[in-house]
Write a structure and sequence with these properties.
Length: 152
């Protein structure tokens, strides 16, 4: 495997996922891409403490320029996250849209050999009604997926 795509979302657990994916990629001497899919605007209004070296999207006002502002901030998040690995074999990418579709689209375009993502704990009812990004990726991918369990 030469290309490992690590899907990170806007949550402190992304540090666990990114680190696990990066460690696996290093053992395979693979190129790494940290991918963030900019999807639901409400996720970006949450103030988290610092993770992956990034201070978070704090005190952001939602107005007509929110999409451009979010894209700029997401690029900043990815740039800062990349610095945590200090490795020329790490790149970043930003997709916009549904998370599972963005992951699958970019994996295909980039030629990923492996997708790394976290399994967040969700209620059983939510999984039944909505599904999870991980399950949707697993259902539709042609690329192996390495799941990093995230427990609350």
């Amino acid at each position: 495997m030469e290309k490992v795509l690590i899907a990170i979302d806007y949550h402190p657990n992304s540090e666990v996922v990114a680190t696990a994916g990066y460690d696996l990629a290093k053992r395979m001497s693979a190129e790494v891409c940290l991918l963030h899919v900019l999807a639901d605007v409400s996720h970006y209004g949450v103030n988290y403490s610092e993770f992956l070296g990034y201070p978070g999207y704090q005190n952001m006002g939602f107005d007509l320029g929110v999409s451009a502002q979010l894209q700029e901030m997401a690029q900043g998040y990815l740039k800062t996250a990349k610095k945590q690995f200090n490795d020329d074999k790490v790149s970043v990418a930003l997709e916009i849209g549904d998370s599972h579709r963005g992951i699958l689209k970019y994996a295909k375009e980039w030629g990923a050999d492996l997708i790394v993502m976290g399994t967040h704990s969700h209620s059983t009812l939510e999984k039944v009604l909505v599904g999870t990004v991980a399950s949707k990726v697993l259902e539709k991918t042609d690329v192996p997926v390495y799941m990093v369990p995230i427990k609350k």
